[in-house]
Amino acid sequence: MTSTNPAVLVIAGPIGSGKTTTATLLAQRLGWPQDGYGDTIRAIATARGLPASRSILQQLGVELTGAGWGTFTRLVLDHARWAPGQPLILDGPASTALTRARRRDQATGPGAVDVRHATELGLPTVRDRADLIIQARELEPAQVAGQVICYLAARLGRAPGGRCA
Fold first, then answer.
1. What is the torsional sign of CA 116, 121, 127, 132?
2. In the chain, at which end, N or C, are there fewer CB atoms within 10 A of the end residue's CB?
3. What are the residue boundaries of the structural domains of the chain, listed by start?
4. CATH, domain range 8-109+120-156
5. What's the predicted TM-score (pTM) here?
6. Which of 35, 22, 38 lies closest to 87, judged by CA?
7. Dist. CA 163–CA 126, nearest whole Å
8. Contact residues for 21 (Cβ-Cβ < 8 A; gap 6+)
């Protein structure tokens, strides 16, 4: 399956969760371009003459998201040279914000504490916006990529060129 209707796929998750591996597998299997939030942050750091240490990149990420997730995402799409109607796979933001959001979603009852970071306040709930959410905690990146391809194939009424459960 190398062509589908254009879409933007964003792979999100905490640091070390396999986002880049999954995005790379999808880009290879679909023949789509790939870019990411981290790529944009590193490019901006380089343009500013900043070192590419994790702490500096995280600080820059906080600064960029502080302007709003919409503004930051526009920077990412511009960095990828994306235009409406073109496919793109984005390696999503690697931050502890997703972990905090997951903890917040799981917290219930009168003792639940709001653990949101200030940069999360403008971040729309992924579940409200996403067409597909895969609970990938127990899956390998190739399995996640396979599920995404099966979803796209089913949505377009095409055979994915592999097995779909």
1. negative
2. C
3. 8-109+120-156
4. 3.40.50
5. 0.70
6. 35
7. 27
8. 141
